Amino acid sequence: QSAQYVAYISLFFILVSITTFCLETHEAFTNASGTTVVPLSPMPTESTEYETAPALMYIEGMCVVWFTIEFMVRILTSPNKREFMKNKLNIIDLIAILPFYLEVGLSNLKSKGAREVLGFLRVVRFVRILRIFKLTRHFVGLRVLGHTLKASTNEFLLLIIFLALGVLIFATMIYYAERLGAKPGIDEDKTHFTSIPIGFWWAVVTMTTLGYGDMYPKTWSGMLVGALCALSGVLTIAMPVPVIVNNFGMYYSLAMAKQKLPKKKNSYMPKPHQFGQPPPSTPTPPPP
């Protein structure tokens, strides 16, 4: 029961840390600390530096202290330290904890190298979002999702290959189709598809049926290619999806069945008979 309470506390700090990470990017929780001159040719420019509100830093510090204590306790109580450090979730914990201590240690230094390292650490603050993977220790559904993604590697690879081939084919087709259907000297300069690599973005957006609308064909031949691209994308994505869904259903059923298994009670487990000793007597059941 105490382990369950510790898990709830850890879950609370994970959610608080993720919330703090998101709020740090809001203008209401940042203060301008000064400007830095960036020597760019032909004219140097100034960039404004921002500092996070102290309240959020204190909250983040409390979360990091808890994660540090939790990490140290788990590594000290682990019977195999090498296997513990090879665990991906433990590596994520360590990567998410270290930048905070490095940033605190370098914040009081005034040297140019320290400031450059400090600026780099502020950029890599995004690694703190990796703490969201710690939730897999507390939710069965997330663990099932991880097993599903791992078991469906071949299907994802097949999907990427199909999409890559489709993107290359339709980006090439839309480039030439827009020039084929355009009026000479009038519509050739108005097309969005000025090169095949630019058409890659349009092909990805169209095949995934997203359709931002920033690039679209303007000629009848380009519209025909766009229709074929959309239909091909639907069929391409639909092929490996059933296999991934089946894998998820299988792992989810196994996880639910494992949770529903009755817990073993050690008080009713018979002890193994040792050689040279009389066999244990069978207890007489009490009268009804």
From TrEMBL:
InterPro entries: Ion_trans_dom, K_chnl_volt-dep_Kv, VG_K_chnl, Volt_channel_dom_sf. GO terms for cellular component: axon terminus; dendrite membrane; neuronal cell body membrane; postsynaptic membrane; presynaptic membrane; voltage-gated potassium channel complex. It is found in: Membrane. Pfam families: Ion_trans (PF00520). Residues 265-288 are annotated as: Disordered. Residues 4-253 form the Ion transport domain. It catalyses: K(+)(in) = K(+)(out). One of its GO terms (biological process) is action potential. GO terms for molecular function: delayed rectifier potassium channel activity. Keywords: Glycoprotein, Ion channel, Ion transport, Membrane, Phosphoprotein, Potassium, Potassium channel, Potassium transport, Transmembrane, Transmembrane helix, Transport, Voltage-gated channel. It is a multi-pass membrane protein. Residues 277-288 have a biased composition (Pro residues). The chain crosses the membrane at residues 5-23, 55-77, 156-176, 196-213, 225-254. Its main location: membrane. This is Potassium voltage-gated channel 3b. It comes from Petromyzon marinus. The lineage of its organism: Eukaryota, Metazoa, Chordata, Craniata, Vertebrata.
